[in-house]
Amino acid sequence: MRALRFHGNKDMRVDEIPEPAIRPGHVKVKNAWCGHEFAGSVTELAPDVTDFKVDDQVAVFPIITDGTCNWCEQESYGLCPNWGFLGYSGFGGGMAEYIVVDRKALHKVPDHVPLDVAALVEPLAVGWHAVKMAKPEPGDCCLVLGAGPIGLAVIHALVAHNITNIIVSEPSALRASQAKAAGATHVVSPREVDVPAFVQEHSPDNGGAHSIYECAGIQAAFQVALTAVRGRGIIVNVAIYEATSLEIPNPNTLNRRQITIVGSNTYTRAEFDEVIAAIAEGRIKNPAAMITGRVPLERAVEDGIKQLVAGVEGHVKILVDLGSGVQQTRPEDGVCATSVHVEA
């Protein structure tokens, strides 16, 4: 089979390697679409796996852990001292035509959900988990800082949780339009608008945001969050920071205004299923709009990975086609290719 493999720094190649063999408790999947997350269809099952069948559509839960520690028991997989990701940490991955995975890593996807959309379950689950950390309620004002892939996932999750006052701060005009398409109520550029003042003006009682989702990973965004959050509000840190430190100009603000700052990392298996259900039922609207490119495996490096690393304007998610053999979903098609259609 073909597989994109890492040979060294900036050295990735499509190689021909043996197909993985089935083993007890495992399932063989024909991968269809991959970002670093992936989805496909079951092709073979170990005799002791009875709750799946050949041709079942599945999204693959990519986190691998030791499965024995206290954090694993709580499904806080990102805190497991031995955590990693399929592919990145070994055990095969989504950039190969086939993978054999533990049965517990598979989540069934309804037949009416296209597999390219199913490949988005993982990033959507990151946003879903972040929203659940804050527990927003209808009527709340929520602010999302940054409309990259995870910021968009947070917007989708907020919409699915019936939040109708979603403000997004994003300097890129294209990403701003994508945030609006995802369901944001207001999208503003921090280069043109005083974001905290805008949030105050558009929040109940002019009190500021009930919850803020920091998805930009820069000092300026964190500072906006501290200024825009209301008393007893919550700031959810979803971003990964390149900087090793953050400045809080007046730490007493946290105490006086009783602000909560919480980190959000990965997701649970239950949340993976919740996202699949929300997509299937149309509560997550038009997730295919996150897909800004599709490339064949042979062009995954030049037309996919290098484009994203270079920060080419216009891209959110570039999916690699592993020979899907299924109808692709265009953003204008809505959630599903057949029985369900949801307008953006």
Task: Annotate the secondary structure layout.
Elements: E1 2-8, E2 11-16, E3 26-34, E4 38-45, E5 57-60, E6 63-64, H1 70-73, E7 84-85, E8 98-102, E9 106-108, H2 115-118, H3 121-134, E10 141-145, H4 149-160, E11 165-169, H5 173-182, E12 186-188, H6 195-201, E13 209-214, H7 219-228, E14 229-237, H8 252-257, E15 260-263, H9 269-280, E16 291-296, H10 300-309, E17 317-321
Helix pairs in contact: 3-4, 3-9, 6-7
What's the end-to-end separation, in Å?
38 Å
Average pLDDT for all residues: 91
Q: Number of folding domains? A: 2
Instruction: Provide a count of the helices.
Output: 10
Proportion in β-strands = 25-35%
How many E strands? 17
Describe this structure in words.
- There is one protein chain.
- This protein has ten helices and 17 strands.
- With 344 residues, the chain is α/β, with parallel strands linked by helices.
- The chain has two domains: 2-121 and 269-333, Medium-chain alcohol dehydrogenases, catalytic domain (Quinone Oxidoreductase, Chain A, domain 1), CATH 3.90.180.10; 123-263, NAD(P)-binding Rossmann-like Domain (Rossmann fold, 3-Layer(aba) Sandwich), CATH 3.40.50.
- Strand 3 (26-34) and strand 4 (38-45) form a beta hairpin.
- Helix 3 (121-134) packs across helix 9 (269-280).
- The longest helix is centred in the middle third of the chain and has 14 residues, at 121-134.
- Residues 326-344 have low confidence and may be disordered.
